[in-house]
Amino acid sequence: MRISFSAPDGKISGAVAVAVLEGGQLSPSAQKLDEASGGALTRAIKHSSRFSGKKGQILEVLAPAGVKASRLLMSGVGKPSEFGELDQENAGGALFAQVAASGEDELVFLVDALEGATADAWRVAARMAFGALLRSYRFDKYRTKEKPEKKPSLKKLTVLVEKPAQAKSDFAELDAIAQGVFATRSVVSEPANVIYPESFVALAKPLEKLGVKIDVLGEKEMEKLGMGALLGVGQGSVRESKMLVMRWDGTRKPGKGKGKGKGKAAGGQPIAFVGKGVCFDTGGISIKPAAGMEDMKWDMGGAGVVLGLMQALATRKAKVNAVGICGLVENMPDGNAQRPGDIVTSMSGQTIEVLNTDAEGRLVLADVLWYVQKNFKPRAIVDLATLTGAIIVALGKVNAGLFANNDELAERLTAAGKSVGEPLWRMPLGEDYDRAIDSDAADMKNIGGRWGGSITAAQFLQRFIEEGTAWAHLDIAGVTWTDKDKPTVPKGASAFGVRLLDRLVAQHYEE
Ligand code: BES
Ligand code: MN
Ligand code: ZN
Q1: CB of 364 within 8 A of CB of 229?
Q2: CATH number for domain 2-161, candidates 3.50.4.10, 3.40.220.10, 3.30.365.10, 3.40.920.10
Q3: What is the whole-number distance in angstroms between the Cα of residue 303 and the centre of ligand 1?
Q4: C-beta of 299 in contact with ligand 1 (< 6 A)
Q5: Where are the domains of the chain?
Q6: What is this structure's pTM?
Q7: Which among 29, 58, 202, 257 has the fewest CB atoms less than 10 Å away?
Q8: pLDDT digit string (tens) for 210-259?
Q9: What protein residues have CB closer than 5 angstroms to ion ligand 2?
Q10: What is the best residue among 331, 387, 388 to mutate for testing ligand 1's pocket, by most ligand atoms within 8 Å of CB?
Q11: pLDDT tens, position by position, 36-80
């Protein structure tokens, strides 16, 4: 979808959206259109028994006389003082969805300065465009027979607002984030015959053009490092396991001498993002039931978020030193697959009794978490993983589970999640849970008992975090894929985590 910003000049066409406040009070632009159309808007509101201008409502008038627009959409904003960033995004997304498949090819947002508003109109305009853009994502590359009249018709979004140049520059940052979200959604949506460790890594290559440094470790290199936990998971697959390391350092400062860009990296300790990248999880020898197994193509959702996040940070040239690492494997049953009862030695030296080959994500993360600490001494680590079904039992598909050994990091993450609409709910850690993964045969086993499965999984990860390293683990099993359309998230891969971590970085880890 093409998006442009310009100053209102009275000329409009296509589908045109205007704001209506609580109680059905028309915004200035709505008022003008109402007058031009001989009262079409006020009449429509009067005859609708439901529309009152409440936040989230939309009322549509088709082909009103007296105006050039083919349809007018009234978007309820409620009280302007309570119409926040997320509401603005949601309004943009909902308006997009309303018109997307209507046959219209152009949508216009007429954004006014409203009395008592929380933000300048040009900021609202950028946010609404961001929401529409996020909602416009569609993974349809394999649909070759969809009838044209069923495809989204909307090609163009025009946002009319005072100070359009400011809206446009605000939007440039948001667009970088949206493109990162799309990169994540695309890789997570792809099936496992297309995305496997090697092809995943290939997707990261283009980030080099943005200034991201990419390193890829194959099985040989990981063997040398002693990453027996990660390698054990992938040993039943014909696809080679990989570890993808992406580094973005936007903290370069100008050198002392003449010439810009001469400075060296300010360096410092990076913030690290670690993603579970199980490109397909059959469960291995502890194989999963057939029903629903196809969902396990998105068991690389955490890695997908790390990829999209690094793209977003690099595209918007975030002034942060960040490293993103993905542990990429495929968990398959095979003559060479890992068996229940096998004991593997992790890179940390700790041994693990693998009692269930389906508890594989933690095995992958164990080695990646250790690697990131040894190589980067990060100031904080956030890992993301579709780690347990148990987190869905606990929190449903609304909140992701947050586990942390550091209250400040946990609070920062919770606040960032709340402000972007990707909510986190903190879960406990503790010694009493930790005992559940003690093993008689090795240093630990990879499953706890029946209860608190997400917590024992997190305890397992924590055994690979060194004392003093700030660490948080996001169990995103319930939120990585959505079965329902939401205002800014079409059903499918959500990219939950990209916006959250971009916000975390912007608020706390940029210079
Ligand atoms: N990838 C799954 C967790 C999962 C389940 C993600 C549903 C998304 C939706 C993970 O590898 C897994 O299989 N976990 C097991 C752990 C158990 C064997 C201790 C689970 O949750 O059942
Ligand atoms: Mn599994
Ligand atoms: Zn898994």
Answers
A1: yes
A2: 3.40.220.10
A3: 16
A4: yes
A5: 2-161, 176-508
A6: 0.97
A7: 257
A8: 999 999 999 999 999 999 999 999 999 999 999 999 999 999 776 544 44
A9: 281, 358, 360
A10: 388
A11: 999 999 999 999 989 999 999 999 999 999 999 999 999 999 999
